[in-house]
């Protein structure tokens, strides 16, 4: 589907966003493991989270929906039922990788599949540590989906240093470790989002520049009530639009302010962005609050490699901020972008070339400079929600507007994107 956009001249209003996608996946999984009813308020309405819900239902977990909240009827320790069919994670890497951790310790066989994008993404990164724990996982050629998981003979805890900075890999190991008497730990040299640790209340320790997180059966969850703060990654599209539009002001309510997610806000503030942040509270260790964003003049700054894992999902929209900012936008140390929902380095570079910008592509990033010379060719989403939304914002900033091909992919993280964009713009 091709979506057209006119130039937006002014942004005003208030947004309350659906719950953070990463937190929503984890709260669903944790509630399904706990015994009894858990109550989830403001769960993400994304397609990705729907994939986690349908996988859990296939595992025998009853889920009730009402207007106020979603209720998960957890079946307690090893309470999943063997699924009749394979579990389809669709486009959702978080569903596939985190479930692999949990299914590795179950006493039944299961298979995880996904759509064509997910089926081309690397799974060896979870297979390797889980196999060290004793899991039996067979993958397709090259360590890709489908994954066939068989019951393990003996499971043991591990102390594992992450070779790639990945919250999904860390969480898969922690979810498996949650089922073992002995302590499992994961060490990361570069921090990644810490929602699994927060929501399970795990202990963590700094070892020099490294962080080690510990888990065992003692941390097994109980049923409870959750409030899921608004999705900061979805908020970023509207934040960048507001900063780059004259005479604009946007208020965003109850959004996640988890410190492993707000590096994107800090970067925009370093670029000159007028963003006021007010912390209001926390739910199950997840901090949230309000943002007030005002039009700003931006300048590009150096993006340190160490923060890349903490801004990985926001890079497409940060690039849009970068091309309207003073100076050259340069990103290095971000090779992980090549194995996201699309090869995001290629997707961004190909789209930016359509604007007549000077683009240099590197293995692990790109640089962009020059002035926009608009073309009428539509931008391509490459079936990737974050590329679709980033280039929708870009076209809304161009004098002649523009078009985005494959726009429907936005529902992977935010089905309300267009409605929300219209509600704040004139
Ligand atoms: C996620 C972790 C990140 C991120 C993804 C969501 C999560 O992936 O890109 O959108 O919820 O754990 P990696 O952990 O593979 O970097």
Tell me, briefly, the overall form.
globular
Bound molecules: shikimate-3-phosphate
Domain module count: 2
What are the low-pLDDT stretches, counting only 5+ consecutive residues below 50? none
Distance between the termini: 24 Å
> Could you report the average pLDDT, rounded to the nearest whole number?
98
Looking at the structure, the CATH topology of the largest domain is UDP-n-acetylglucosamine1-carboxyvinyl-transferase, Chain
CATH class category of the largest domain: Alpha Beta
What can you see in these coordinates?
With 426 residues, this protein is an alpha+beta fold. It folds into two domains: 2-18 and 229-424, Enolpyruvate transferase domain (UDP-n-acetylglucosamine1-carboxyvinyl-transferase, Chain), CATH 3.65.10.10; 21-219, Enolpyruvate transferase domain (UDP-n-acetylglucosamine1-carboxyvinyl-transferase, Chain, Alpha-beta prism), CATH 3.65.10. The protein has helices at residues 21-33, 47-58, 93-103, 124-132, 167-177, 195-200, 232-244, 263-270, 308-311, 315-324, 344-353, 385-397, 417-424, and strands at residues 2-5, 12-16, 35-41, 62-65, 70-75, 87-88, 110-113, 136-140, 144-150, 159-161, 184-188, 203-207, 210-215, 225-227, 249-256, 274-283, 286-294, 329-331, 358-362, 365-369, 379-380, 402-405. Strands 2-15-17-16 form a four-stranded mixed β-sheet. The chain has a four-stranded mixed β-sheet with strand order 4-5-3-14, covered by helices on one side. Strands 6-7-9-8 form a four-stranded mixed β-sheet. A hairpin with a 2-residue loop joins strand 19 (358-362) and strand 20. The structure holds shikimate-3-phosphate. Shikimate-3-phosphate binds at residues 22, 94, 166-168, 171, 192-193, 312-313, 336.
């Amino acid at each position: 589907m091709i979506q057209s956009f006119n130039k937006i001249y002014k942004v005003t209003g208030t947004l309350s966003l659906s719950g953070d996608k990463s937190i929503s996946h984890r709260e669903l999984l944790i509630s399904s493991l706990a015994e009894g009813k858990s109550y989830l308020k403001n769960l993400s309405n994304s397609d990705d989270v729907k994939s986690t819900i349908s996988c859990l239902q296939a595992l025998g977990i009853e889920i009730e929906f009402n207007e106020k909240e979603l209720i998960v009827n957890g079946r307690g320790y090893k309470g999943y039922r063997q699924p009749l069919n394979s579990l389809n994670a669709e486009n959702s890497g978080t569903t596939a990788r985190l479930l692999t951790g949990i299914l590795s310790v179950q006493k039944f066989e299961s298979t995880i599949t996904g759509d064509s994008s997910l089926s081309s993404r690397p799974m060896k990164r979870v297979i390797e540590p889980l196999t060290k724990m004793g899991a039996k996982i067979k993958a397709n050629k090259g360590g890709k989906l489908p994954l066939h998981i068989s019951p393990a003979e003996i499971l043991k805890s591990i102390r594992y240093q992450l070779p790639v900075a990945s919250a999904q890999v860390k969480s898969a190991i922690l979810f498996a470790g949650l089922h073992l008497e002995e302590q499992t730990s994961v060490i990361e040299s570069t921090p990644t989002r810490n929602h699994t640790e927060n929501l399970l209340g795990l202990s963590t320790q700094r070892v020099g520049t490294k962080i080690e997180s510990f888990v065992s059966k003692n941390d097994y969850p109980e049923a409870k009530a959750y409030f899921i703060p608004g999705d900061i990654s979805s908020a970023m599209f509207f934040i960048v639009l507001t900063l780059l539009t004259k005479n604009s002001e946007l208020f965003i309510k109850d959004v996640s302010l988890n410190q492993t997610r707000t590096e994107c806000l800090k970067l925009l503030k370093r670029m000159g962005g007028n963003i006021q942040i007010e912390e209001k509270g926390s739910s199950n260790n997840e901090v949230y609050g309000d943002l007030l964003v005002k039009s700003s003049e931006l300048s590009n700054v150096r993006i340190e490699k160490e923060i890349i894992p903490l801004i990985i999902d926001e890079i497409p929209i940060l690039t849009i901020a970068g091309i309207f900012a003073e100076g050259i936008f340069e990103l290095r140390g971000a090779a992980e972008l090549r194995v996201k929902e699309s090869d995001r380095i290629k997707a961004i570079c190909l789209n930016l070339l359509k604007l007549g910008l000077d683009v240099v592509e590197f293995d692990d990033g790109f640089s962009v400079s020059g002035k926009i010379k608009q073309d009428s060719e539509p931008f391509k989403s490459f079936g990737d929600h974050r590329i679709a939304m980033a280039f929708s914002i870009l076209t809304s900033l161009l004098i002649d507007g523009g078009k985005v091909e494959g726009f429907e992919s936005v529902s992977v993280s935010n089905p309300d994107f267009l409605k929300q964009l219209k509600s704040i713009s004139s």
